[in-house]
Amino acid sequence: MRAAVLHEIGQDKLEVHDDVEAVGFGPGKVRIRVRATGLCHSDVSAMSGVLPQPAPFVPGHEGAGEIVDLGDGVTGLSEGQRVLLCWLPACGVCPACKRGQTQLCLAGFMNAGTPNFKRPGGDVFGFAGTGTFAEEVVVDAGCAVPIPDDVPFDIAALIGCGVTTGLGAAINTAKVEAGSSVAVIGCGGVGISAIQGAKLQGAAQIVAVDPVESRREAALRFGATEAVAPDALGDAKQRITAGEGFDYVFEVVGKSATARTAYETTRRGGTLCVVGAGALDDHLQLSMFELFFDEKRILPSMYGGGDVLRSYERAIALWRAGRIDLESLITHRVPLSGINEALEQMRTGAALRTCIEI
Fold first, then answer.
1. SS3 state of residue 314
2. Neighbouring residues of 260: CB distance < 8 A, sequence distance ≥ 6
3. Given this model, what pLDDT does residue 110 score?
4. H or E segment at 58?
5. How far apart are CA 245 and CA 341, in angstroms?
6. What pLDDT digit, counting tens, does each position of 158-178 carry?
7. What pLDDT sits at residue 207?
8. Which residue from 100, 104, 186, 187 has the fewest beta carbons nearer than 10 Å?
């Protein structure tokens, strides 16, 4: 089968091979024919080494498709069933799951160290234990989440990561209050979803911050009340909040520099929500005095900060009701053979989300 492979960490292009085999099928596993997958910034971060991932590997974790085979012991699923892939399934028995913090379950991360594929030259891993830039993938049954027939594969793929992450940051983690002021730094697919979440929660002002003009224009269509370049954020803070700072600021870039800017843009007693996935060695510096004196809440948000299965259902319900726009998040479409074109669209900021149709 075909799959896009990164051979060494640090390479900026993928190679599409037709001699890749999905491995690991057996009890408790399902084989999925991938139909659509989104390119998420986390895939690029894993390619560059910002996020730890053994190589060679097949990127991709935001996907949807059809079950083609079931391993022994799998219940509640059937061949031909339409599913989205959950890259962080809950085991249900660890301390985090028992506390109701299923997004912090580590069981899914254990899969990242087990090869999902192989080629004649050896083993190949799947990013985040999945690897959806492939025609087929074998995953734990818990990773296959059934979707209704009226949800297209491309929409389901986005719900599998970016939409759930952004909406959840605003709704689950920050719990944006009606009438509040919000700034979102970084307006790709996740940032736009955070904007939609803040709008759903009733925020009065939502300022989108991004260096790319097309993304700022898009943010306005998705619910931002204003969109500015990073160097104009200070002026927006002064005009909208009289210099006090925003009630909620979302950092959706994953860098300490933008997190520091987000902290400084948050009002005293306000909430900084860190959504971007950054590097292990990129440290955010805060003084002990400002932590105490400003009393700003710093809330990281992992995969939307809530039960992902409930978050999927909520996203589908909101999409059906026309409360969120998911179709317009997909600004570009390419076949698997055009994966490097999709990477360029991501790096330049030309795309909110590129759908790879497989």
1. helix
2. 284, 285
3. 75
4. strand 57-58
5. 39
6. 999 999 999 999 999 999 999
7. 98
8. 100
State the residue for tokens 């860098």: 255
pLDDT digits (tens, 9 = 90+) for 100-144: 898 899 887 777 778 999 999 899 999 999 999 999 999 999 999
In 3D, which of 262, 258, 198, 189 has the Cα closest to residue 224? 198
CA distances, 23 to each of 20, 139, 278 (Å): 9, 9, 30
Helix axes 213-221, 189-201, angle to 10 degrees: 30
CA dist 349 and 356 (Å) reads: 17
SS3 at position 31: strand
DSSP 8-state symbol, 209: E
Single out the residue of 177, 220, 232, 230 nearest to residue 196, CA to CA: 220
pLDDT of residue 276: 95
Q: Return d(Cα 303, Cα 311) in angstroms, integer.
A: 10
Residue type, 70: L
Within its chain, how far is the Cα of 242 from the centroid? 33
Q: Report the pLDDT averaged over residues 222-250.
A: 98
- Cβ burial, residue 298 (10 Å; 0-12/13-18/19+): middle
Enter the tokens of residue 252. 């959706």
Cβ-contact 131, 39 below 8 angstroms: no
The label of the residue with tokens 């999709």 reads 342
Question: Which helix (DSSP H) or strand (DSSP E) does residue 271 occupy?
Answer: strand 266-274
- What pLDDT is attached to residue 113? 77
